[in-house]
Specification:
This protein is 73% helix and 0% strand. By secondary structure, it is mostly helical. Helix 2 packs antiparallel against helix 3. The termini are far apart.
């Protein structure tokens, strides 16, 4: 039962889904929430297509071709090409947000995802750093930036509490499923947090 819950948490907070959650959250709790809801839904939908649907189809294609054994990418040696695909997808979404005149801190959130994935790609050559933890670390950094930067349109206490708890749940799930060690999860979380926080300051 515990393993099943851990798998569900890992699936729901996949690195391919977290950018969509981040953009949706930013458009809900920041000063951007005054934008018409149709526009906000459109931005979230485009983000989902670029950062989730496109790389997911690419990864499934690699699996069907026999180039990777597991679409969940549990084998460290099979992560290189999917990570490159993720970098390109996150990069495309960064350009999209920039062209859509998103604020710098929001563009920085996606650019931070690019940077964190590049670092994960390099480190993964020798060590299986957690991409799940990197995604959640980046999401947490974005919430901190909205709060600290004065971009919040709502009381940020509960968003902070919820994202902190979810980050802990995802990290615990990855360790519980024996996909990563404690150090790999902590390194991934720091990677995502630092990259997003610093790039959102630019």
């Amino acid at each position: 039962m515990i393993n099943k819950i851990a798998r569900i948490i890992s699936f729901v907070f996949s690195p391919l889904l977290v950018p969509t959650y981040g953009v949706g959250l930013a458009l809900s709790v920041s000063t951007l929430n005054h934008i018409p809801w149709q526009v906000r839904v459109g931005v979230v939908a485009v983000t989902f297509m670029i950062t989730c649907v496109v790389p997911l189809f690419a990864i499934c294609g690699l699996w069907k071709l026999g180039l990777i054994k597991d679409p969940a990418l549990n084998e460290r040696t099979e992560r290189t090409v999917p990570f490159v695909i993720a970098v390109l997808s996150y990069g495309a979404c960064t350009v999209y947000l920039y062209k859509a005149h998103a604020p710098v801190w929001m563009v920085g959130f996606m650019a931070g995802a690019v940077a964190a994935t590049i670092i994960s790609l390099v480190v993964n050559r020798w060590w299986k750093i957690s991409a799940h933890a990197a995604g959640m670390g980046g999401l947490l950094a974005m919430v901190f930036r909205i709060t600290a930067g004065g971009y919040a349109a709502v009381d940020m206490l509960w968003p902070l509490v919820v994202v902190v708890l979810l980050t802990g749940m995802v990290a615990t799930s990855r360790i519980g499923l024996q996909r990563h060690t404690e150090w790999q999860v902590m390194a991934g979380g720091l990677n995502g947090f630092i990259c997003v926080y610093l790039l959102s300051l630019l």
